[in-house]
Design brief:
Layout lengths: L13 E2 L10 H8 L12 H13 L4 E5 L2 H12 L5 E5 L3 H4 L5 H4 L2 E5 L1 E2 L2 E2 L1 H7 L9 E7 L12 H13 L3 E6 L2 H8 L3 H5 L4 E5 L10 E5 L1 H13 L8 H13 L4 H18 L4 E2 L6 E5 L7 H10 L2 E2 L1 E2 L4 E5 L6 H18 L4
Parallel strand pairs: 1-13, 3-4, 3-7, 7-8, 8-9
Antiparallel strand pairs: 2-10, 5-6, 9-10, 11-12, 12-15, 14-15
The structure holds pyridoxal-5'-phosphate (PLP).
The site of pyridoxal-5'-phosphate has 11 residues, from helix 3.
Length: about 350
């Protein structure tokens, strides 16, 4: 596939459903072709080991573990740091709470959701929920998420993260960071990823969202915890053999694809501003990163109708509630694609908003 140079005619449809749709880069295919391979269930795969060490070093952690998905990374973070009947405290719109707390059936952990603003837990509610180590239902893990998926790509402030980390330590609890889009947060804050990761014991990171690798995620943290997680990965069937084939693309993702996320953020802001300027009946989140939430006029047409109409106009988006759409910018959405998106909205607004 040809990369980079924006073509005057965008490739249709323009896919704003998620940054997971990004394809591997030519450099990734080249690295895959020449990757040193081994058996990650036996002596270890050298390319996987290289990726694990690279991410651990970037995040200021002792060790890393390559896993197929962030869902597995988050599950292993819980499994390796929480005993049965202990409590996991987490902001109540976090992905780990809304979409992954079925993990409780495996770990036996009890999840407590904390109300938040822009993905940041209310500190008083967090402090009230923390149960000390002496409690029979102690809190052993506190989780954060940045950038925050359901909060429209919001980024936690470092001050908030420091507060949460201190409160958790006070209660003898570990901290896990769901950093599926950690590098989006780092780019938005203009700090190294390590400056964010310092406020968590363990961190999960997705390689195949904006970073464009085909599959894979990393769990990073202390050697002893990652060692435990490595054993549990085998229990879950997550140990893969010549996984260096995909880890090779992950190395390129980390080495080459982090800085450019700023472009995606710029286009998300431009998309948001253009939509508000052109269509007074729409309102949008102010994107900090690459996610734009669009609030639709409540009326006869719900988000499903808008998704269908935009789809027919060559733009794929996802419903995010009855009158809300989610758009995610990524490497394949260039300026021409953005123009096409605005034209599609013009067509659809004329048809749908006029009828409400
Ligand atoms: C995408 C995402 C996940 C799940 O990632 P998978 O690799 O699809 O399992 C978890 N948490 C957050 C914050 C995400 O954005």
């Amino acid at each position: 596939m040809k990369d980079a140079a924006p073509s005057p005619e965008p490739r249709l449809p323009v896919d704003l459903r998620s940054d997971t749709v990004t394809r591997p880069t030519p450099a990734m295919y080249e690295r895959i072709r020449t990757a040193a391979l081994g058996d990650d269930g036996l002596e270890g795969d050298p390319t996987v080991r290289q990726l694990e060490a690279l991410v651990a070093q970037k995040l200021g952690k002792e060790a890393g573990l390559f896993v197929p998905t962030v869902t597995m990374a988050n599950l292993l973070a819980t499994f390796s740091q929480v005993q049965r009947q202990e409590q996991v405290v987490i902001e109540s719109t976090a992905h780990m709470y809304t979409s992954e707390r079925g993990g409780a059936t495996l770990t036996g952990a009890f999840y407590a959701g904390i109300r938040g603003v822009d993905g940041a837990m209310e500190m008083t509610e967090l402090e009230a929920a923390l149960r000390p180590a002496s409690s029979p239902l102690r809190t052993s893990l506190v989780c954060m998420e940045t950038s925050h998926n359901n909060a429209g790509g919001a980024v936690l402030s470092l001050a908030h993260m420091a507060q949460v980390f201190a409160a958790a330590r006070q209660a003898d609890a570990r901290v896990h960071l769901d950093g599926a889009r950690l590098f989006n947060a780092a780019v938005a804050l203009q700090v190294p990823a390590e400056a964010i990761a310092q406020y968590a014991d363990t961190v999960s990171l997705c390689l195949c969202k904006g970073l464009s690798a085909p599959v894979g995620a990393i769990l990073a943290g202390p050697s002893s915890t990652i060692g435990r997680a490595r054993g549990l990965r085998k229990v879950l069937g997550g140990t893969q053999r010549q996984a260096g084939i995909v880890a090779a693309a992950g190395i390129v993702a980390i080495e080459e694809m982090c800085e450019r996320l700023a472009e995606d953020h710029l286009r998300a802001r431009r998309l948001s501003r253009s939509l508000i300027d052109a269509f007074p009946m729409l309102s949008t989140s102010v994107p900090r990163t690459n996610i734009v939430l669009i609030d639709l006029p409540a009326g006869a047409n719900d988000s499903g109708d808008w998704v269908d109409a935009l789809n027919r106009a060559g733009v794929l988006v996802r419903p995010w509630g009855p009158f809300r759409l989610r758009c995610v910018t990524h490497r394949h959405v260039d300026d021409h694609a953005l123009e096409h998106v605005l034209a599609a909205f013009r067509t659809v607004v004329e048809r749908l908003a006029a009828s409400t």
